[in-house]
Design goal:
Layout lengths: L7 E3 L3 E4 L5 E2 L1 H13 L3 E9 L11 E9 L4 E7 L5 E3 L9 H11 L2 E3 L9 E2 L3 E2 L12 E6 L11 E7 L2 E8 L7 H5 L7 H6 L6 H16 L5 H29 L3 H22 L8 E2 L2 E2 L5 H27 L1 H7 L7 H7 L3 H5 L7 H4 L20 H24 L17 E8 L4 E8 L5 E7 L1 H13 L7 H8 L9
Parallel strand pairs: 3-6, 7-8
Antiparallel strand pairs: 1-6, 2-16, 4-5, 5-6, 9-10, 11-12, 12-13, 14-15, 16-17, 17-18
Helix pairs in contact: 5-6, 6-7, 6-8, 6-13, 6-15, 7-8, 8-13, 13-15, 14-15
């Protein structure tokens, strides 16, 4: 039997009529999805859709929607359930990577996944109160509890970390996020609105290009159009600059956490250099207003392309020097090695994505597995390191910096000609569209479902942090609690990208 049999198949950044999405009862959809995951699939999204697109409440029941990625086949698979009320058998009991998705569905729609091992709110309880209900507790005379946050000492998003410790050793870490209740998904329903692109650019501000590209790709898929090659090239340039800026900043922050100041101070400046290159591209250091449905809002003339090339080379050389200082320091290696290890099996079970997955030896990258846009024509080699510890996560970042830098130098030397924007017509009615983009943290997933008028009936966003925060909890098990800042920085996950 084919791994994707009975689910509808589609490519990345494409759409299909809602009526063509196969329908199962919830009792059938759960084992069918579990079977796809067991056969090499990966859960990109699992969410609820009100069965009544007009009232958009739970009175008529909720349809469950599953989006599964088959990386080796470069395909996506989609399926839905008949309307569900009350409860359904938990997918998490069969596939642990569904655990947060099912908690979210329960929180948003009141559907109980029967058999879920730890059912509690993801972001809120009792209306808008933070999700600070029952925490897991380890019993024992020598066990004590340490609570960190949600208010932190620095300028940082709110997040609560609850440690169960025996002495200095962490036995268990539980993370509670979602204190701002941003409501980005709810705000875009009924859209696209005039503010929709600005909302997408601020889903996670340090991932502006990736989320904006995913949103634009969804609209283009719904309209049956494709941006010009020149626009696809510009988006790829901006996406790799975003990756370089954040990875170089993270290398400096990791150095700072182990008090290695040469790399820490150098990377702070280098990160700014890459952000300034993005500003040279579109006027915004974070890439805002660059990506637009149908293409890009800005272009690069020959003089600015040459300026980008001239400034990129020295920045990459400075980054290489700063990284070599880091790898040559025995004190750094001693702190990075065997700290915060996540095994390959754990990473696969919980569905890690991005550098966190590749640092566990998983070959998983949307640019290669599900290429769309310019990455269909030009790709960077996938950066993989098998250790699963802080060193591996740092090494993957450095490898990606090198490969993104090489990609940029090659692309800037041979820019394509043409227009930067194509017209985008109204979205097709009653249609499902899916777009995946490899952001610097990992897979960004946007799923849109339109109603009979072509407006957003449901819009689902899965930031890579939604997959990867669980990896943080596993990384701390058996570690000293003093290793928490270093492990946290080695993942560098988004609080606001989780709070949608």
């Amino acid at each position: 039997m084919n791994a994707t049999q009975e689910f509808a198949l589609l490519a990345n950044a494409t759409s299909l009529p809602w009526a063509d999405v196969p329908e199962f009862s919830a009792a059938e959809l759960v084992p069918a999805t579990a079977d796809k995951l067991a056969r090499g699939g990966r859960l990109c999204a699992w969410f609820g859709v009100p069965a009544d697109p007009v009232r958009r409440d739970s009175a008529a029941g909720i349809r469950l929607v599953a989006i599964v990625a088959f990386d080796t086949d470069n395909t996506l698979a989609a399926a839905r359930s008949t309307p569900v009320t009350g409860s359904y058998p938990a997918l998490t009991a069969l596939q642990p990577q569904a655990h947060l998705f099912e908690r979210e569905v329960w929180e948003q729609h009141g559907l109980t996944p029967v058999g879920h091992p730890w059912l509690k709110p993801v972001r809120r309880m009792a209306g808008n109160a933070p999700a600070m209900g029952e925490f897991f507790r380890v019993n024992g005379r020598e066990v004590h509890e340490v609570a960190v946050g949600p208010v932190h000492a620095g300028v940082i998003e709110p997040g609560h970390f609850r440690f169960q410790c025996a002495g200095e050793e962490v036995l268990h870490l539980e993370i509670a996020l979602g204190y701002q209740h941003r409501g980005a998904e709810h705000a875009i329903q009924g859209g696209p609105h005039r503010a929709s692109m600005a909302q997408m650019e601020t889903v996670a501000g340090d991932t502006t290009i990736a989320h904006a590209t995913a949103y634009a790709s969804v609209l283009e898929a719904l309209a049956g159009t494709e941006p010009p090659l020149r626009a696809q090239w510009l988006r790829a340039i901006a996406l790799e600059l975003e990756r370089l800026a954040n990875h170089s900043g993270d290398l400096g922050a990791l150095a700072n956490d182990v008090a290695f100041l040469p790399t820490a101070s150098a990377c702070g400046k280098i990160r700014g250099d890459f952000l300034n290159l993005t500003a040279l591209l579109c006027g915004s250091r974070f890439g805002r207003r660059l990506v637009r449905p149908g293409g890009c809002g800005y272009d690069l003339e020959a003089a600015r392309i040459e300026q980008l090339r001239q400034r990129l080379g020295p920045a990459l050389a400075e980054l290489e020097n700063a990284a070599l200082w880091l790898w040559d320091a025995a004190s750094v290696r001693a702190r990075f090695e065997n700290t915060g290890t996540v095994t390959t099996r754990q990473a696969a079970d919980i569905g890690l994505v991005g550098p966190a997955a590749r640092a566990c030896g998983l070959v998983r990258d949307v640019r290669y597995d599900h290429p769309a846009g310019w990455h269909r024509f030009a790709q960077s080699p996938i950066a993989v390191w098998p250790g699963g510890d802080v060193l591996a996560r740092a090494r993957v970042r450095w490898l990606e910096c090198q490969r993104s830098g090489q990609f940029l130098q090659e692309q800037l030397a041979n820019p394509p000609d043409g227009e930067t924007r194509a017209p985008v017509t109204a979205a097709a009615p009653e249609t499902l569209a899916v777009a995946l983009v490899e952001g610097w943290r990992g897979e960004v997933c946007h799923v849109a479902l339109t109603d009979a008028g072509g407006r957003f009936w449901r819009y689902k966003i899965v930031d890579p942090s939604f997959h990867n925060w669980t990896g943080m909890t596993l990384a701390l098990r058996g570690m000293a609690i003093s290793d928490f800042p270093l492990c946290n920085k080695s993942f560098n996950l988004s609080y606001c990208g989780f709070d949608l």
